[in-house]
Amino acid sequence: MQMLTTPFFGIFLSLIVYLIGQWLFKKTHGLFFFQPLFVAMVLGITLLVVLAKFLEQDVANLYNTAYRPGGDIIFWFLNPATIAFAVPLYKRNDIVKKYWAEILSGLLFGTVISLFAIVGVSKMIGLNRIGIASMLPQASTTAIALPISKAIGGNAAITAMACILNAVIIYALGGWLVRKFRLNNDPIGEGLGLGTAGHTVGSAFALKLGSVQGSMAAIAVVIIGAVVDLVVPIFAHLVL
Amino acid sequence: MSQQNKNATKKKVQPAPFLVQMGIYASILFVANVISSLAPASFPVPAPVIGMVLLYSLLSLHILKVEWVDSFGAILINLIGFLFVPSGISLAANLDIMKAEGIQIVTVIIISTIILLLVTAYTTRFFIWLKKKSPVHAHSKKAVQPKSVPVRALTHAKGEN
Fold it and tell me: Which of A23, A42, B72, B101 is the most exposed place for a label (fewest CB within 10 A)?
């Protein structure tokens, strides 16, 4: 057990499962089900569950004592990685200057419409009030979504799950969705959508599609953060 | 020979040394974190988001040159899929929620992700369409009502309901 509680274990596990994911992705010629991040997540959780059974421990406990020390080190690098999106954004300053009003209104109205749709879907599927409140702040990054979720009476763990799965889903299904709904007809909307739905990971995905998409996704991450901060508490107060 | 070639291409845009780039990122993160801690609890603004705004402002004001932050940033952005693995695995701590009502929650999350993507994309497309339409042909084409884009936006938003 002791050798598992050093950061080496978490870093080792993260890299191995991700590399297996990359290998599977290549072997299957890019089948979305074997998207490396998705494979790494499922494989990593499965390994922790099996290991917990083997050590006769609680999974959450094993995650906290064994995986987290290493996982947190990798996780920290998302901080500078998020900042780095300022560079693709700056490189397409021409688009920002020309379309700033459309970008702002698209994000603001898009969020409000999405919130109504999300409440509708949640009610149809039968989530309770806590569940619905937990779904509302998911358009922003985790650091904003969690406190807002708590403030409007949601469950922070469910919100965290939503924010994380958003990114995984966009990374895995983004290509298919973009093709299916012909989002590439309008790279500005495409980028803003990917940044809103997939956060930083969605922005990395958008950047692969093009410089306009990447820069728009980056600006979406910033502005949606502010929009969620301001709009979601009011929305929750009025609608829930 | 190859050395000379390298020098020739590097003359145009000289990227800052790696450690200098890291230093810039670390300074911005540090300042951003200080600003973030000053934000009120009801309006959380995370340090990385403030950092992105800071770096963007410094670039736009030409205080920083893009080649001082470009290559290190590109490496980090290319790694984001991997950097996100610990977040994915962190769901292992919440397996009890999954057992209780996991299928419902995951279904709502998947649909919500698609809603956010499509609604944002089509709403923006609608506003860009408005902008393109309004200045030149404002009066002559007013009779031809929104045809392709806005109708589509609506049907998709409804389709997810």
Answer: A23
Contact B90 A160 (CB under 8 A): yes
* Domain of A170, in residue numbers: 2-239
Two structure tokens written together for B142:
């007013």
Binary contact (A78, B115; C-beta < 8 A): no
Domain of residue B52: give its range: 18-131
A124: number of Cβ within 10 Å: 11
Residue B155 in domain: no
CA dist., res. A71 & res. A54, Å (int): 21
Mutate to test the interface with B, among A83, A161, A190 (most CBs of B within 10 A): A83
Q: Residue B40 domain-assigned?
A: yes
Q: Please list the rounded mean pLDDT of every run of 10 residues in chain A (240 residues).
A: 86 96 92 89 95 92 94 94 95 95 96 96 94 95 91 92 94 93 94 96 95 96 93 92
**Which pLDDT does position B12 carry in this prediction?**
64
Give me the residue from B83, B91, B120 closest to A110, CB to CB. B120
Number of structural domains in chain B: 1
Among B97, B117, B125, the residue with its CB nearest the CB of A197 is: B117
pLDDT value, residue B155:
41
- State whether residue A1 is helix, strand or coil: coil
In a domain, B29, yes or no: yes
Residue B117 in this model has a pLDDT that exceeds 80: yes
Domains of chain A: total: 1
Nearest CA in chain B to A146: B44
Q: Is there a domain that residue B145 lies in?
A: no
- pTM value is 0.85
